[in-house]
Amino acid sequence: MPPDVPLAELPPEQAPARPDRKDILAFVADAETESVLRDGLSDAAPRGVEFHRANVRGAIDVLRQTSTPRVLIVDVTDEGRPLTALESLSDVVEPDVQVLLIGEFNDINFYRHATRILGVKEYLFKPITRDMVARHFGPIIMNRSRRPEFMQGGRVVTITGVRGGVGASTIAVNLAWHLGKRANRHTVLLDGDLYRGSCSLLLNAKSGAGLRTALETPQRIDELFIERCAQPVTERLHVLSGEENLLEHINYQPGAVARLIETLRRRYNFIVIDAPFTGAELHRDLLMMGHQRILVLEPTLVAVRDALRLLGLPNGTLQVHRGLLVLNRLHRPGTLTLQQVEDALKMKVDVAIPDLPKLVENAATIGEPAALHGKFYKGIVALAAQAAAAFPVDSSPDGTSASVRRGWRHPWRSGT
Fold this sequence. Notes:
The protein is built from 16 helices and 13 strands. By secondary structure, it is an alpha/beta fold.
C-alpha cells in the first residue's frame, strides 16, 4: 500500500479486497438501463459489472444468500414503496457497501431521504444517460472525488462534423432551437466558423461583430457585453455568430474561449457550440470546453474513418465520457447501412437521423428549424435527452449539496 494514502483514496485495484466479495453488482429492471450503465461505467469499471435483471426486491432475495459486493447498483423502478424496500435491503447487506440508486422518482424529498437517512451514495432518475452515469457514479466506484466543475453554470455541448458537409451545423441549430423553444431553457448557440455565419442564416437571425471582438479582446467580455452581442431568435434562444470578411485574419487570443464560455455559463442553461475541427487553436479550445461532444457523420467509409480519429482526441476538463455519435442522412441512396456503419466503427451510434433532403433544404431556405417536422424532430429529441440532459437532482433548491456521505446503515445502528 502506498504510504500516507488514505484507503478511501486508493483506486479499486490497489485497495484490499476479500476473496469472497464481488466488486460491482447491479440489479436493473430493463435492458436499456443495463446498456447505458455498461457504457457509462466502461472507464470506471474496466473489470466489468455483474448484472441481474431484477428490481430492489429481487436484489434483497439474492443478497440474503450471497456476500455483499463493494458497490451495489439497484433499480427501484416500479417499486410502490421504494424507501421501505431500501430499508429492507439495508438489513441484508454489510454496512460499508456503497449503494448507487436508479429510479423514476424525480423528487427532492425522495433524494434527501435516500441519501441523508438511508446512506445511498448517489441517485439518478430515469431516463439516465452515459454522461450522467460516468459523471456521478464513476468517481464513487473509483473511490475518487468528483472532478471539479470550476464553477456552477450552464451545460456546454459541442457539435463537430467529422468532415465538411455532413450536416453538423443543421444539427447544432436544431438542438439549440429545441432547448430554447421547446424545452424553454435559456440557450445560446455559438457558431465557431466566424466567416460563414451559417447558424444565424439557418435561424433567420443576424450575425454581428461581437464574437470576433470577444475572441480578439477577451478583457472586454462580461455579462453586459454578452447581452449586447448575443442576437435574439426567441425569448430564450440567442445566437453568437459572425460573418467576417474572408480576406481578414482573426487575431484569436489564447484563453479567450475559456473566458467567453465561463461568462456564457453564468447567463445560460445551455451553450451549444457549432465547433468545426480544423486544427486551428480556436477550434481546439472550443472542443476542450464542453461537458459533452457530439460528432456528426454520414454513412460513408471516409466519414467513419474521420469519426474514429476524432473519437481518439483526449477529453476536455469537464468531459467524462467519449463523444456521442450522430449518424446523419441514414438511408441516403448509395451509402452504407446502419449495421455496416456500426460494424466499421465497432460501436453503436447513439442517434440516427434519416435522410430528409427536401425537408432540410426547405427549412434552410426559409430560415426555420427542420425540427419543426416529424422524423427530424424525433432525432433531435433523442439527441437532447442524451447530450443536453440537465444534471440529476443532486442539490437542494438553495444550491447546497443534498448528499451526506454516510455508510449504508440507519443512524441508530451506527450510534449517531
